[in-house]
# Entry
Amino acid sequence: MLEKEKKIREVKTVGTHRVGDVCELTVVRQNEMGAFLDAGTGDTGDDILLHKLQQTEPVKIGDKVKVYLYLDPHGRMTASQKLPKMQEGQLGYVKVISVTKQGGFVDIGAERGIFLPYSEMRGHVSPDQLIWVKLYRDKSGRQAVTMDVHEDMVRASVPAKDVKKGDTLTGIIYNILPEGFFLLTKERYIAFMHRSEVPGGRLDFGQQVTGRVTFVREDGRVDLSMRQLKEKARITDADTILSLLEKRQGTMPYGDSTPAEIIKDVFGISKAAFKRALGKLMKDGKIVQADGWTSLKK
# Structure
């Protein structure tokens, strides 16, 4: 019995039909379980079950129904009228269902999750994370997905038109390099965001972000930044400094001579940005500096 089950599990095709196919089959008989579909082999033992629970609408003998083929928990090819949202070779933005040591499973809208091999993962993947993937068949004929989608994204993208420096675009991270992050925008533009243009320098695969266009390339791609323009940032940083001063009864042990790493740790900004904000506050007559301390002006 175990040997028989093993052989059944190894079969991924019935006639010309493969697990993962979307095809149109004819209902040839019915029973209390559901409808049986003709697999086209001439052997009724190969008929494929379309269980009542997998029917989106009632069917009858002679009907041609469009179905998705998958393996049930017993390793038998089974049909469902619940069709996947992706076809082989297509890109999709999908949710991660689960993650194991071997890989993960993602939801493409079918009856069963599709395998994401560990070797095809990029970055740290977690359940419920949304990621860009491409659907393909592995060497064994099993459907799987990969997060290696850069070349496909390039082919699917369009050149940025009527876009100028300063415009705002929103996109989703699909590739990460040491230098920065690649996004596909809602308009299907390819965008790149250097790590220096990301506060904190970290983003994740599948994350949706909005940035300001800093450069439009000749090939139609764009560069983005999540950092505020210096003038806006200076106002924001000045407000942060004032807030801390108020919490500390009007004085703090930070000023122009404070080391950059301390400024970064306390305020989350660069030393240059800190000094610009201090300069604005001094010009506005709100603070004074003395002996390395900064205080609210009385």
